[in-house]
Amino acid sequence: RRVHGDFDEYLLQLSWAKTFCSTKPNSPQCQMIEHGVEIDDEELEWAASHPTLHGLWPQYSQGGYPYFCEEYNSCCRGKSCQLLQQDSNFKKALKQIKNNQEWEKYGPGFFAGDNFLATHEWPKHGSCTNMGPVEYFATSLETVKRVENSSGGFNLLFSNLGKSVPTAELYESLEKEGRVAVRCNRGSGELKDISFCFKKGDDGKPAERVDCDSHMDTCRNREEVYIPAYEASGPSYQTENENNENEEEEL
Predict the structure, then answer these.
(1) Each residue's pLDDT tens digit, 113-144
(2) Gap between the Cα atoms of 8 and 57, Å rounded
């Protein structure tokens, strides 16, 4: 029986929506983002142009990770976990997610209609922390905002939507506090996801950054990484430089 709290580190994985949605365009989160870009929804335009939360995962420092801990040990991967229907704290966490628009921005897969990521991430990964579901999801959200701040708001990615960026420049913008792991699609070189790693603090939450294991790092040896982009429909989705250029043309 796997017990909660028995791990050493955390891995925070952030996905690139356009790459993910190219393979699952009909998923609720992808349809939500696509529609948000079309109607110039501020939170969803941000989600379309920045990395967003996939999950915060307990890890062992020597490799591997715990999963489906404590009472969730009986849940099977890929199947609906019936215990969720009986977990009042999980239901409370879902309600808080739905009432907080920051989740639409930073974690659309948690916010979308089916709450797919929430119902997957809590039993598989969250149950192995020493937190309840409300605290686990709140900590996940705060950790996303923490790496956003340390990475300059992911401005390098946002300012190069639909373009390729030098790999060395990409890693430099992300590794101010520790080695990250960046995955790309093998053939196209499209950005797939970015992982940040943390030591588990005395309070059981992510503490200082540590270097991520290189086995998840598939982009580092490429010359360039391509940043897929949605087609923008409104001026709020443009970069600052594009807005300045448009203003000059109008003058």
Answers:
(1) 888 899 999 999 999 999 999 999 999 999 99
(2) 11
- Strand pairing report for 164-166 and 52-59: unpaired
| pTM of structure | 0.90
Work out the pLDDT band at 85, boundaries 50, 70, 90: confident
Dihedrals φ, ψ of 135, to 5°?
-70, -35
Which of the pair, 247 or 23, is modelled with greater confidence?
A: 23
- Which tokens in the block code for residue 44? 């969803």
**Residue range 25-53: mean pLDDT, rounded:** 96
With the C-alpha atoms ordered 205, 210, 216, 218, is the resulting torsion angle positive or negative?
Answer: positive
Backbone φ and ψ of 152, nearest 5°: 65, 35
